[in-house]
């Protein structure tokens, strides 16, 4: 049930999250789908734990709301949104592993490798990653073939060596060899920003938007992607683990440089305000249709978990 005190944005975010949750719950059942031989129950349970364990579903929201700007708020957008959530969740499952960030808690629950084991977590992440591309490429995602190929290519680039996984590699290196400010911004644009940028750009691809609108949505995604990471680093300094649902203070403990540690809390808050203003300016040509996306920028910058 929706809290009557929620804003229109929070209601929309909750509704989008519920739609993605419902779709993924059905897609990740133990029943084999066409062409599959079987679905090992323990692997499926680990996958479901990794992707159906709560979360705001912000990236799917951005896909669907960006598509809605161009009149494409449809089942295809929902499937692309679900695919992106699979990619994001796989990255969290793998990031939590002992060889990476070594976390025991994610979204207030045991991480996949703690609830199951490390092998199950690796395979669950691999499976979520692979399944995401099946979701986008499938004919059941009712877009023309060119749009599906464009989405698959853009998603692969956002998730791969030049995007999220490359950013994670840089993040691990940063624990040993601290980057300068330019290096931190590059790292964050890849590790966190690339998928958020894709989420916003994907909506314009689904909606067959003009190339200038696609570029505008991508720039908006870059701005809120940086804001997301700045807010996350700020929470790592100012919040406690019980509030955010994961360990905090880890960057300082690991001696990892962030823009917050480099410039301080007040500077970070000023930067967040500037990024919100930039995001709102980029959305101005879309008028009232972009209200929820403007709200999303403020939500990202001001979030408390």
Care to give the gist of this entry?
This protein is mainly α and 305 residues long. Helices cover 69% and strands 1% of the residues.
Describe the structure in your own words:
The protein has 305 residues and is an all-alpha fold. It has one domain (8-302): Farnesyl Diphosphate Synthase (Orthogonal Bundle). The chain contains 15 helices and two strands. It has helices at residues 8-27, 41-51, 58-68, 75-95, 112-115, 118-137, 145-159, 164-174, 181-206, 211-238, 241-244, 250-253, 259-263, 265-283, 291-302, and strands at 105-106, 109-110. A two-stranded antiparallel sheet has the order 1-2. A hairpin with a 2-residue loop joins strand 1 (105-106) and strand 2 (109-110). Helix 3 (58-68) runs antiparallel to helix 4 (75-95). The two termini are 21 Å apart. Mean pLDDT is 92; it is low at 1-5 and 241-246. Belongs to the FPP/GGPP synthase family. Keywords: Isoprene biosynthesis, Magnesium, Metal-binding, Transferase. InterPro entries: Isoprenoid_synthase_dom_sf (IPR008949), Polyprenyl_synt (IPR000092), Polyprenyl_synt_CS (IPR033749), Prenyl_diphosphate_synthase (IPR053378). Pfam families: polyprenyl_synt (PF00348).
Secondary structure elements and pairings:
Blueprint: H1 8-27, H2 41-51, H3 58-68, H4 75-95, E1 105-106, E2 109-110, H5 112-115, H6 118-137, H7 145-159, H8 164-174, H9 181-206, H10 211-238, H11 241-244, H12 250-253, H13 259-263, H14 265-283, H15 291-302
Antiparallel strand pairs: 1-2
Helix pairs in contact: 1-3, 1-4, 2-6, 3-4, 3-9, 4-6, 4-9, 7-9, 8-9, 9-10, 10-14, 10-15, 14-15
């Amino acid at each position: 049930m929706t809290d009557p005190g929620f804003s229109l944005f929070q209601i929309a975010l909750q509704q989008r999250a519920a739609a993605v949750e419902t779709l993924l719950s059905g897609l990740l059942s133990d029943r084999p789908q066409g062409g599959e031989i079987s679905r090992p129950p323990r692997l499926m349970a680990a996958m479901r734990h990794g992707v159906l364990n709560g979360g705001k579903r912000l990236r799917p929201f951005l896909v669907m709301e960006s598509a809605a700007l161009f009149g494409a708020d449809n089942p295809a957008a929902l499937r692309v949104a679900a695919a992106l959530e699979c990619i994001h969740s796989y990255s969290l499952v793998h990031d939590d592993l002992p060889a990476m960030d070594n976390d025991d808690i994610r979204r207030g629950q045991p991480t996949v490798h703690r609830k199951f084991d490390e092998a199950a977590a690796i395979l669950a992440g691999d499976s979520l990653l692979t399944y995401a591309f099946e979701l986008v490429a499938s004919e059941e995602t009712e877009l023309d073939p060119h749009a599906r190929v464009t989405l698959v290519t853009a998603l692969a680039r956002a998730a791969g060596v030049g995007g999220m996984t490359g950013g994670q590699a840089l993040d691990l290196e940063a624990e040993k060899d601290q980057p300068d400010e330019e290096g931190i911004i590059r790292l964050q644009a890849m590790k966190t920003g690339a998928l958020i940028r894709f989420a916003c750009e994907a909506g314009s691809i689904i909606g067959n938007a003009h190339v200038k609108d696609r570029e505008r949505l991508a720039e908006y995604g870059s701005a809120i992607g940086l804001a997301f990471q700045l807010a996350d680093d700020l929470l790592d300094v100012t919040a406690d683990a019980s509030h955010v649902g994961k360990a905090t203070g880890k960057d300082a403990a690991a001696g990892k440089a962030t823009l917050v540690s480099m410039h301080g809390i007040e500077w970070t808050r000023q930067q967040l305000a500037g990024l919100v203003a930039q995001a709102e300016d980029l959305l101005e040509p879309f008028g009232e249709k972009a209200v929820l996306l403007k709200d999303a920028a403020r939500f990202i910058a001001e979030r408390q978990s």
